[in-house]
Amino acid sequence: MPPPVKPTGDRAPVVIVDDVHVEYKVFATGKRPSAADRKSLKLRGRGKQMRTVHALKGVSFTAKQNDSIGIIGTNGSGKSTLMRAIAGLTPTSSGAIYSQSRPSLLGVGAALLKDLSGERNVILGGLAMGFTMEEIEERYDEVVSFAGIEKFIDLPMRAYSSGMTARLKFAIASMATHEILIVDEALAVGDRKFRQRSEARIRDIRDNAGTVFLVSHSMQSIKDTCSRVIWLDQGTLIMDGDPDEVIREYHKAQDK
Ligand SMILES: Nc1ncnc2c1ncn2[C@@H]1O[C@H](COP(=O)(O)OP(=O)(O)OP(=O)(O)O)[C@@H](O)[C@H]1O
């Protein structure tokens, strides 16, 4: 009989991104294309041109248990596209993404119902995440005080500032325990105190064997929460490693 396989002590892979490409096909209208553009673009329909934006070009990496991975890169480098692909919201054009459980994407754009009060949104968000009314009641006060919006909780969310909305969204999402949590710039709109609280929450998730992806333009938030950083540029993975090292190289490239 073969000896039992010994655990290697390595952390388990949670998300595998294997040579992922994402292409968006968009119809561009309006501006008349230049002669050079006309040569390189396929013209379809009446004056409409179909353009392909190659947002991710063969990205590969493996995220493990307890990783908290910061994703950095200039505007349009493919960060949100990569997160949406991992969350299963944007299809890949080629390559594959395997994940151990369903990742939750927490982004500034995630849906809350603007015409309903904060209170209703907490309840709806809780139900959507599979909590019973009783479980939501138990957590309700903590969610509202974490978001720090006690005075506004009975007002429609239309009346909230973008920072207040982001705080409530983060508080609702963090009611649940996430094995894989993706936070896309949600922290950027909160104030300093809230940012510290939510960063602590991210560290908690990571310490409880979860895996966190954090997209941010704030290198401080990344340094404070991430154990690893991936730098994307024009859809290509440039560097993947220690936060200080990757951020140093990223800044060097920016200064050129
Ligand atoms: N729905 C879409 N349709 C067409 N093109 C898109 C779409 N979403 C993103 N793109 C394009 O894909 C590329 C990558 O965009 P993405 O939003 O992933 O970048 P990002 O790194 O998150 O940028 P930012 O820092 O500005 O948020 C850009 O060129 C963008 O114009």
UniProtKB/TrEMBL annotation:
Q: Name one GO cellular component term.
A: membrane
Q: Which GO terms describe its molecular function?
A: ABC-type transporter activity; ATP binding; ATP hydrolysis activity
Which key words tag this protein in UniProt?
ATP-binding, Nucleotide-binding, Transport
Q: Which Gene3D superfamilies match?
A: P-loop containing nucleotide triphosphate hydrolases
Q: Which InterPro entries match?
A: AAA+_ATPase, ABC_transporter-like_ATP-bd, ABC_transpr_TagH-like, Bact_Polysacc_Export_ATP-bd, P-loop_NTPase
Q: Where is the ABC transporter domain?
A: 41-256
Please name the SUPFAM superfamilies in this protein's record. P-loop containing nucleoside triphosphate hydrolases
What CDD domains is this protein classified in?
A: ABC_KpsT_Wzt (cd03220)
The family line of this record is:
Belongs to the ABC transporter superfamily.
Full protein name: ABC transporter ATP-binding protein
